[in-house]
Amino acid sequence: MQQLLKLMNQRANTLRQAIRRAEKDDGTFAEGWLRVSVDKGRPRYYRITESGDTSGEYIKKRERNLARKLAQKDYNKIFIEMAGEELRMLENSIKQLTEESADIAYTGLNVHRRVLITPYIYTDEKYAEEWLKMSYKTNPYKPEEKTRETNRGDKVRSKSEGFIANILFDLGIPYHYEQALKLKSGKIYYPDFTLLKKSTREVIYLEHLGLLDDESYRKSVLTKIDDYRADGIYLGKNLLITYETASNPFDIGGTRNMLQAIFE
After folding, report:
1. Which DSSP state fits 143?
2. Does residue 137 contact residue 129 with C-beta atoms inside 8 Å?
3. Average pLDDT of the residues in 134-160
4. Three-state SS across 202-263?
């Protein structure tokens, strides 16, 4: 619901700005209106200045700018009317959904009552809460290497992964660490982080490439990215990458900004 309201508000703001521009132009146009006829597939433009005139004065090619202004004038009038009507409908819908959304049947309850209820429509927060509770198979490889404790209280394998986990936690982005991912090919990978975008309920994977100085590691990473792509997991869409090398340390601030922009 919040994503829907966000999109509706964005559209409403776009309409308001466009209407202001159109109203600013209104009254600056040439007198009259435009008539268009087509002769053998070629348009001919006429300027009409009197209400009883059905023919108008032919606009010569060198005066084509006048035709543009008259066409813009006609469009301006229609646009202001239709955009204004759409904006009124949107504003009414936004108000109604904000005050009378079906979600309020759940969110409006006392918290102690909510814990007893299974809602028919999950809010984004409730969906994320249930997603975090789900059990999953994690990477069995050397669990003793998970020594870095995060702000959420779980443990990861490296300092950089700890930074990422803390950023995710601070930004309120739900994540699973090293959750098993079985591809259509049968291969099983364990992405460093499996993330939930609450507003759209999409799953997005984040891999941190921490050993790019190592050639064999680079080859294995490229193979993994190829396998992901073959399975419909695309870099920049539902796969995010962070990295570091000896000469390029992990960019904590840049990673935070990236995640904040994507998961806002």
Report:
1. G
2. no
3. 96
4. EEEEEEEECCCCCHHHHHHHHHHHHHHHHCCCCECCCEEEEECCCCCCCCHHHHHHHHHHHC
Tokens of 87: 């904006």
- Cβ 207 vs Cβ 195: under 8 Å: no
d(CA 106, CA 123): 9
Residue 193: band (very low, low, confident or very high) from pLDDT cuts 50, 70, 90: very high
Residue where the block lists tokens 């409730």: 126
Interval 38-74: pLDDT, tens:
988 999 999 999 888 889 999 998 999 999 999 999 9
Q: Which segments within the chain are labelled E, that is strand?
A: 33-39, 42-48, 57-58, 148-149, 155-156, 175-177, 181-182, 188-189, 193-197, 202-209, 239-243
* Residue 104: exposure state from Cβ atoms within 10 A (0-12, 13-18, ≥19): middle
Amino acid present at 163: F
Question: In this structure, what are the phi and psi dihedrals at residue 246, rounded to the nearest 5 degrees?
Answer: -60, -35
pTM to 2 decimal places? 0.73
Tokens of 45: 């433009």
The position carrying tokens 């079985």 is: 182
Q: How far apart are CA 1 and CA 99, in angstroms?
A: 12
Token pair listed for 97: 């959904």
Q: How many residues does the chain have?
A: 264
Helical (H) or strand (E) element with 166: helix 159-171
**Could you tell me if 43 and 37 are in contact, meaning their C-beta atoms sit under 8 angstroms apart?**
yes
CATH 2.60.40, domain 135-262, yes or no: no
Please say whether the beta carbons of 148 and 210 come within 8 A: no
What residue has token string 């982080």?
Answer: 193
Contacts of 185 (CB under 8 A, 6+ apart): 227, 230, 231
